[in-house]
Structures are given as C-alpha cells and as structure tokens.
Amino acid sequence: MIRFFRHYVPLSMLLLVVLEFALFFFASQYAANNFDNRLVFGTVPTLASTLRPWLFALLMVLVISLFGLYDWE
Questions:
Q1: What is the pLDDT along the chain (73 residues), one digit of tens a residue?
Q2: Which residue, 30, 55, 69, 70, is most buried by CB atoms nearer than 10 A?
Q3: pTM to 2 decimals?
Q4: Where are the chain's structural domains?
C-alpha cells in the first residue's frame, strides 16, 4: 500500500488508475490527430488542441472515481 494524502491506496488500484489515464489519453490523442478536420497538415498545434487529451483523460478518471467505480467492495 502507498500512502497518498494521508490515505493508504493499494498498489493495484493506483496501477489501474494510471493505466486507464494512459488509455484515455492515447485514445483521445489518436482521435484528435486522425479525425479532426480543422487540423491542416503542417500547421502548429495550439495550446487548446494539446491540452484536450490531457483534460479528457483527467476528467474521465475523476468521473470514474466520483461514481465509485474504483472501490473494491
């Protein structure tokens, strides 16, 4: 168990959160790069387009944890 903000978190749960964050991030990054018609080849990506995958992954992990889907009981 790892102590995280005065709470003990099982290592398996922490690994699950990190893997799901990575899965959401790479899926949204792939979708943004391949299916966004506004992006033109050779243009410089803006700050908003680079932050979208990070925000999406963070939001999904937060929503999953708020609904209690990371509880083992």
A1: 888 788 787 888 888 889 999 999 999 888 877 776 565 565 666 766 778 888 999 999 999 988 888 776 6
A2: 70
A3: 0.74
A4: 2-66
